[in-house]
Predict the structure.
Amino acid sequence: MKLNNVDFDTYFKNYPNEQGFFGKYGGSYISPDLQKAMQEINEAYFTICKSSKFISELRKIRKEFQGRPTPISYLERLSKSIGNAQIYVKREDLNHTGAHKLNHCMGEALLAKYMGKKKVIAETGAGQHGVALATAAAYFGLECDIYMGSVDIKKQAPNVARMKILGANVVEVTHGLATLKEAVDAAFEAYSKEYKTAIYCIGSVLGPHPFPMMVRDFQSVVGIEARAQFTEMTGELPDAVVACVGGGSNAAGMFAGFLNDPVDLYGVEPLGRGEKLGDHAASLKFGTEGIMHGFNSIMLKDENGEPAPVYSVASGLDYPSSGPEHAFLRDIGRVKYDVINDEETIDAFFTLSKMEGIIPAIESAHAVAYGMKLAKKLGKGSILVNLSGRGDKDMDYIIEKYGIR
């Protein structure tokens, strides 16, 4: 399959290139000291992670610790309530720790172990990446520092407690908007002082090369499994695949299984309260090209060209940029990126819970809402939604802000 001179038969061999670029997006815009650390990680990834020993150990972890493969569920009642289109979900909520994040965290922590590192450092928004990395650190006997904005700490109290129980040191970030961007800033600053003994485990397909590639590769297990499972279940490929996009790790992993297929791919960003700057976090829809946190992508900017304030009801999506591969896939037209607002998201949260017995993470509810909207629009065919996480972490916040519908 070819699109705009991109050959998807050889896509994963060519993208990113050796410098970490997906077209003009990506790269590594960091200090010389950190660049040396990134080069060390890159070299380790292409040697250690390609060895049969590493792959065998990771596969064992996937099966015996994470509980993979996660299943696909057919949403029969929800589908019938909408019309004739059939909706399915890939159940990453059933992955150990309740979200897709453990897929790359176990890979990154295993790499840290092979590299002889003693500590893992990360940021988190919704807390799922923090919980996953704390879990991986406990599994491998590593120290773990998790940076989290004070706003998100209040919204995601259950996940904060889980991280602490798992032995992680949760570092509260209070400057700026005290959300995900500031947590990334603080984690990068800490890593710059400890890179000789620690590894920074980025929580999405973001940051300087090799992390956008590495996280995508570790997350591709989702799309590879989903493609095989859906084909076995139905005898054909889905007509459409849907995933939410903040930084974009769950979407990158899901889309990886279908890029070379005649399947429509939809990335769903948070429109939040509306289109006014500061009321949403839909960078791919409203942003422009820019560099932040060591990579070039599409970002939301203020009047001074700096990262703009962003908002989403989902703590894991309130980031002013998106992974460079998503920007590239948008530009070449392989993935369509659209938006869902807070109200549509919360409606989908309660609808899926009451009709199918599945309580989704608020992040995942964006994708569910779009899948429902798409089902009404198409009127036929099949839609596969990546249910990237479960909603246990969001219960207190949802009840306090929206009550029970």
In short: The chain has a mean pLDDT of 96. The radius of gyration is 19 Å.
